[in-house]
Design goal:
The chain is of the alpha+beta class and 230 residues long. The chain has 4 helices and 15 strands. The radius of gyration is 17 Å and the shape is globular. The model has no long low-confidence stretch (mean pLDDT 96).
Length: 230
């Protein structure tokens, strides 16, 4: 596992593009170990079939506590630098409250608000599956940034399945970016909103994300969300 990331570049890319590529964080062996987790029922608290809920097509599973050590380590390592970015975003948007410097303190606030269920998840897509554009907000307490890591190799394991980011700025039509990620590579992106600079100062851009249709094979992704859910 690689947790060495250029956080200044990440913040600059988030400001410029609304998302940032964090490079390869997981080895092929670590990706394979997480893929095998998907069929291990005891690792998860709940499973969602997307089509009946009109979320798209595919299946995802929320991990139960305690999280797998690899997932827990990534969540703890990424939270502090992302919290620093999130606090600068809060200031730009005129919010007085700040996020705790460490994950444990932030999760204590989630739990005090009744949000006690873990949100890191695995998503699996097969041919014809896709994920509609959406936001990930699970309660009153929400962290504005999250991370996705692709656990399958494009070309040999699957085709299609680009990661999609949609940005809706005030008085503008939606801009969509399609991102292709290699095995073990990560993307950092907003879960719902981000500040954008305009002629009258900073404004709120609505952000959504999804996955385009998988054309062949199987694609698994690890999603790391930092707030817990009700």
């Amino acid at each position: 596992m690689n947790t060495r990331v250029d956080w200044e570049r990440i913040e600059a890319d988030l400001d410029a593009r609304g998302h940032a590529l964090a490079g390869r964080l997981l080895s092929a062996r670590e990706c394979a170990a997480l893929r095998r987790c998907f069929d291990r029922d005891t690792s998860f608290r709940s499973t969602v079939d997307m089509e009946p809920k009109r979320f798209g097509r595919g299946r995802y599973r929320y991990f139960a506590y305690p999280l797998p050590p690899l997932v827990q380590t990534l969540r703890e390592a990424f939270y502090p630098p992302l919290a620093a970015i999130a606090n600068r975003w809060r200031e730009r948007l005129g919010r007085g409250d700040t996020f705790e410097p460490e994950l444990g303190g932030f999760l204590s606030r989630c739990h005090a608000a009744g949000q006690t269920r873990p949100t890191p998840l695995l998503l699996r897509y097969e041919p014809g599956d896709y994920n509609r554009m959406h936001q990930d907000v699970y309660g009153r307490v929400a962290f504005p940034l999250q991370v996705a890591i692709v656990l399958s190799r494009e070309g040999s394991d699957y085709t299609g399945g680009e990661f999609l980011i949609g940005e809706q700025r005030p008085r503008m039509q939606t801009r969509v970016s399609a991102i292709r990620l290699g095995l073990g590579e990560a993307i950092v992106f907003p879960n719902a909103v981000r500040p954008v600079r305009g002629p009258r100062g900073d404004a709120r851009a609505q952000m959504r994300h999804g996955v385009s249709e998988l054309l062949s094979g199987e694609r698994l992704t690890l999603g790391i969300i930092f707030h817990d859910a009700k």
